[in-house]
Design a protein that fits this description.
It is found in: Cell membrane. The chain is an alpha/beta fold. The protein contains 18 helices and 5 strands. The two termini are 43 Å apart.
Amino acid sequence: MIWKVIEIHLRRLRHNRVEWLLTFVVPIAFFSIFAWIFTHGVGTTPKVKVALVNAAGSDRCQEILDQLSESEGLRVMPGPDETSVLDRQAAETMVRRGIATIAVVLDIDNDQLSAELLNDSSDKVASQVVTALVTQAVIGEAMPTTVRAEGPAGSLIGEPTEARTGNPVPKKETATQDDTTQDDREFAQFVRNVAATSRPGSQPGTPSADPPLLAAPRIEVVNILGQGKSNPVVSVYAAGIAVMFLLFNASTGGGVLLEERENQTLERLLATQMTMDQLLLGKWFYLTLLGCVQVTVMFLWAQLVFGLDLLGHLDGFAIMTLATASAAASFGLFLATLCRTRGQLGGLSVIAILTMSALGGSMVPRYVMSESLQQAGLWTFNAWALDGYDKVFWRELPVGELGPQLTVLLAAAFGLLVAARVLAIRWETA
């Protein structure tokens, strides 16, 4: 009898395409998605969007910025007016609006080169990458070629190496602090003397166009976003989880149509004076209202427990939540009218929602993904919804800046609702 039970389930599995899909195809699909993200996104750091500012107007600063612009790890973003010179205030505005992740501002004060990095601290990787590249560029520019050249073992020219002498060079086991300090002082003085005469176009004994920088360069990272927030990244997590479960709730609510179809309740409703338009609109308004309440409860919990400032951003939150909930409601009705059974809806909704959540940023932040994956995420309204909530809570931008996100979400809500109405025609003619 035990074998008979196993045989019954095997036959059921063989004839159930949805169960086949959820058992074998979905795990492989999601493994492929996350493997692609972590091998082409996190594993290979995507280009950081930067704005470059020459605050000193110096040729020396411009040389460093030109070297940074050629770096493979950076993507230089042009200013609002590509013909004008970008200043510090314009660069800071670009970071606040999300056009650039970080702005590099180079200046010279009392012969000291300073690099101020205006950072968006929501990206934990960008500041480290840009700091390393700026440090490398500043040190490389300050040290002339004749001094930067390295020997076979990576040592400076003039340092004895095994390859140059043919004999092993014994390493100093101990060194006193006075000897080390004296060597450092002599080498630093040598670098300054050569730097003063090794600039392009300079002659021995002739000062260069820019005076040599005698002090060590100063690099400072300034987080212009997230300051004063008790828990600055909680809004990102709240939005990501809220949007994902909003989609699941909408697909479950849309599945009521299939239940009404199976138990012939739908036919009795249409036999009355109710039309299919009225039925779909009624369900759409209900799912939209329920979604707004669901997201509001999530963010209220985030404010009470994790210190999210919901009341301070109530207008932007209300507009984004209404647009997101309406798009999710249309998505749930579209999936319901697309499927023929509740089992098909369950399998299709899981695949669609989890895929959109993975690519749209609900599971993995989009800034760690590669450029191609970030572009693919724009085909999901998860990405547009999260960008809108990010503008409201993190960047604290006015409601007028939500135009692109609201346009896409409302267009998706309208388009999917119309598609659901077209697919529902078969129930009227059946």
